[in-house]
Amino acid sequence: MLLSLSGASGVGKSTILVALERADLDAPVVGVEFDSIGVPEDADTSWRHGAIEHWVRFAVDAQDEGKHVLLCGQVPPGELLAAPSADLLDGIAVCVLTASADVQRSRLLGRGEQEDGLIHHLRFGAWFAAHAADPRHLPEVIRVPSAVPMDWERWADWESGDARWPVALIDTDALTPAQVADRVETWARAALAGDAPAVTLR
After folding, report:
1. Strand 68-73 versus strand 167-171 pairing type
2. CA-to-CA distance for 104 and 125, rounded, in angstroms?
3. Inter-helix orientation angle 101-110/118-133, to 10°
């Protein structure tokens, strides 16, 4: 299974992967950071499509070895499900962390982001949260021309509340990093046990 811990910049992902790597999830889980493959200065949505396919293939290889993968990064659920090799996975589960614009802004400024660049992060954060709740929310944000043969039709007719949409949401506004980690660990355990939203595209 591929577990995707996702969300926009500043919603609280950064410390969670480390905490989960120390947790015993009662299953062999490999934790990876999306950006660890390197992000070029001109990275765009099309580049992200290719990077997502890279990590899906990584998860397929891990699956063949009897392992699960926990991917942490800015991976919109619709892009993950549309990745060419996603239908080779035994299961996909997504946990999206969200934050209000004020909290996201404060966190981004606290880590050194410049004020004049925040608007892009905030707009993407608002879209990301809405997309995670409703696959029909402005899909054109991610459905752009790409060198990667994305299969958007896998979820094109899904609506908000569709049981096939494998997304759990955690609002991090009032939570400490430790509390977020605890909730994500609970989600991961449930997903691995088949008790949290997940989908198989085969």
Report:
1. unpaired
2. 8
3. 130
